[in-house]
Amino acid sequence: LAGCTVTFSGVIPTNEPHPQSHPLWRLALSLGAQVTADLLPRTTHLISAHLHTQKVAECLQRRVHNVWILHPDWLFYCRWSLSRAMEATFMINALPAGSAY
Fold first, then answer.
1. What is the DSSP letter of 91?
2. d(CA 94, CA 84)
3. Which pLDDT value is given to residue 64?
4. Cβ-count burial of 49 within 10 angstroms (0-12 exposed, 13-18 middle, 19+ buried)?
């Protein structure tokens, strides 16, 4: 996942004192991604189990089209396939009519 910057939302507890030790964070790093705790301009992938999180809402409200909002299974599939899985398969948000990534 070189070139990807991953941010998590709703999958790592907010009271986690060391989010860098969470298995999903470590998995993303092991696949070559950069990982950030906050949604940043360089974020390319937002990993969330559902749409009802503050970071997901921020992406959707700002209509940030360069951030994939994906289910955590995307990371597991990337690990299984040893490649960057097709994001469209793991999207948790529907694309507006006429939009394309």
1. B
2. 21
3. 66
4. middle
